[in-house]
Design goal:
- The complex is a heterodimer of chains A (143) and B (384).
- Chain A has 143 residues and is an all-alpha fold.
- Helix content of chain A is 81%, strand content 0%.
- Chain A is built from four helices and no strands.
- The longest helix of chain A is centred in the N-terminal third of the chain and has 33 residues.
- Chain B has 384 residues and is of the alpha+beta class.
- In chain B, the strands form three sheets. A five-stranded mixed β-sheet of chain B has the order 2-1-12-7-8. In chain B, strands 3, 6, 9, 10 and 11 form a five-stranded antiparallel β-sheet that branches. A two-stranded antiparallel ribbon of chain B has the order 4-5.
- In chain B, a hairpin with a 2-residue loop joins strand 1 and strand 2.
- In chain B, helix 2 crosses helix 3 and helix 3 crosses helix 4.
- The termini of chain B are far apart.
- Classes of the chains: A mainly alpha (143), B alpha+beta (384).
- Chains A and B meet through helix 1, helix 2, helix 3 and helix 4 of A and helix 2, helix 3, helix 4 and helix 5 of B.
Chain lengths: 143, 384
């Protein structure tokens, strides 16, 4: 395993250097603009998206009864993923008058529909868990 | 879950993340899923790159007709699925970001640096990809395809290093006896993985209709709708933006066809007088959307034969555009001799709309849209 690990690390370093050399040589990719975006990609995820998700998750864990926690945290996570994916579409900066078939949909409306489906599902699961909790011991079905 | 300690400082921050769900096993499982997704993106991305910039050894067939549609649709759909997957993976190790002191020794510091490169490169690929399919180029400040290509090398390298460093931990985590799940109605590992799967399902169903037509009505967040566009087909580059309006509408328009037996200049009427053929071929964009269409026109191989070329010749097609990276494209022999490859004059029964390439355009099976050159000015047997 020692040799496999050495080969993986050495190969990885070689690939990173190849990629960076490609960026440096490419006339259509400015090094400063590139490194700026690379750094932004790192910071955005670690210090903006993750803290927001963590804060929402922590608030949900404190404020909600036990039976609602997991479904709501799951819905929050899915909400974050869908919002991130659709954000560039929602903002719509890619729209152009000369290209009406690009970004043809109502994206804010679309996001609301998706989130409505996700949260309806989450509430249904939460409700089922609550009913199970309330009914379980009384019916004597708890394992 | 996050518990805020009495005094928040660098020494206590990483201990304020209290979820018992985090474990090497969960992280390894998410890592396997993420690695698989990344491998799909890498392979399909390289295919798309190689079709457009073929290395000497590369061969791309003209059949199956929908093959590129599948590889590129998969590339974009998998890239979108990586968003929730990457989020979950980073969450599972997030407390380690705040470990204090930041590095035990030089080797540990270097390893953490390699993880920073991995997170940066993976984030870069996902973000630039999302911006590109939303056609929002301004925040990038560089040419997307070139940067996306080279960063794939960086990300792949960083993944190899990460796997190399973590291999013993991964092996132990995936082969060790499974710890019993915590009792009660808190998170279980299986529940968490199911939630990740649900998130992937939601973002996929919400967007995949841009290439899977039956999902068209359900994919309310798809950047494209294959049913929306002039003549029922979406457009990625308008005649106005390409600056070809005047030349394309010029009554004196001629298509120049050049080969070993000389040059011929064909008017639109000349082209329409040649044997016409009809083919159902998708227009398949590198951005991951695709749409079915029925094209009618002259077979490229008939024009090649007219110019004195043969079935083993490559063909260069040139647009009326004055510039742009996709002004010229090479049609390799498998596509040039395919009977489905047309110089199309009509789309879905009507003369081509200006935005679809009027007076005539190339349409070939199993080929990215950017290489289906529109507003043709010249066809030459041979390479540029």
């Amino acid at each position: 395993m020692k040799w496999i690990r050495r080969i993986l690390v050495a190969g990885g370093i070689a690939l990173i250097l190849t990629g960076l050399a490609g960026v440096l040589r490419a006339a259509s990719v400015g090094t400063v603009a590139y490194l700026r975006f690379l750094l932004a990609s790192l910071l955005l995820g670690d210090f903006l998206v993750m803290p927001i998700v963590a804060i929402f998750g922590a608030v949900a864990a404190r404020a909600l009864p036990r039976w609602a926690r997991v479904p709501v945290q799951a819905a929050l996570y899915i909400t974050a993923a869908v919002t991130l994916v659709s954000l560039p579409l929602l903002l719509g900066f890619g729209r152009a008058a000369s290209l009406p078939s690009a970004l043809p949909r109502d994206y804010p409306g679309g996001l609301l529909i998706v989130l409505a489906v996700v949260w309806t599902g989450a509430f249904a699961v939460a409700f089922a868990r609550r009913v199970r909790r309330a009914g379980g011991p009384r019916n004597g079905t708890r394992p | 879950m996050v518990r805020l300690p009495g005094r928040l400082g660098p020494r206590t921050l990483s201990r304020s993340f209290t979820s018992r769900l985090r474990s090497p096993r969960l992280t390894s499982q998410l890592g396997l899923m993420l690695g698989t997704a990344f491998a799909i993106c890498l392979l399909t991305g390289y295919i798309s790159h190689a079709i457009q910039h073929p290395p000497g050894w590369f061969f791309w067939p003209s059949r199956p007709v929908n093959f590129y549609r599948v590889t590129q649709g998969l590339h974009v759909a998998t890239g979108i699925a990586i968003v929730p997957l990457l989020g979950a993976k980073i969450w599972s190790v997030y407390p380690k970001l705040f470990r204090w002191p930041p590095a035990r020794d030089v080797a540990h510091g270097l390893e953490r640096l390699s993880i920073a490169v991995l997170v940066a490169a993976a984030g870069f690929q996902v973000l630039t990809g999302l911006l590109n399919i939303a056609r929002w180029y301004a925040p990038m400040g560089f040419f997307f395809t070139v940067a996306h290509f080279w960063t794939a090398w960086v990300a792949t390298g960083a993944i190899l290093i990460h796997v190399g460093v973590k291999l013993p931990v991964i092996r132990r985590a995936l082969t060790a006896k499974v710890r019993p799940a915590p009792a009660g109605d808190g998170w279980t590992r299986r529940g968490f993985l199911l939630t990740v799967g649900a998130a992937i399902g939601v973002v996929t169903v919400a967007t995949a209709g841009q290439t899977i037509r039956p999902l068209g009505a359900v994919s309310v967040l798809a950047p494209r709708d294959p049913r929306v566009g002039v003549q029922g087909v979406p457009v990625n580059g308008s005649a106005q933006d390409a600056g070809v309006r005047q030349k394309a509408l010029d009554p004196a328009y001629h298509l120049e066809v050049t080969g070993p037996s000389g040059t011929q200049r064909l008017s639109l009427a000349d082209l329409a007088a040649l044997p016409q053929h009809t083919a159902a071929l998708p227009i398949t964009c590198v951005e991951g959307w695709s749409a079915d269409a029925v094209w009618t026109g002259v077979r490229l191989r008939d024009l090649v034969a007219m110019a004195g070329g043969g079935p083993d010749d490559a063909v260069t097609v040139e647009s009326l555009q004055d510039d742009g990276p996709y002004r010229i494209s090479t049609v390799e022999p498998p596509h040039a001799r395919d009977e489905l490859t047309l110089i199309a004059l009509r789309l879905n029964g009507e003369p081509l709309h200006l935005d679809h390439g009027y007076p005539c355009r190339l349409i070939a099976p199993n080929r990215p849209g950017v290489l289906q050159t529109k507003w043709l000015a010249r066809i030459a047997v041979g390479r540029p």
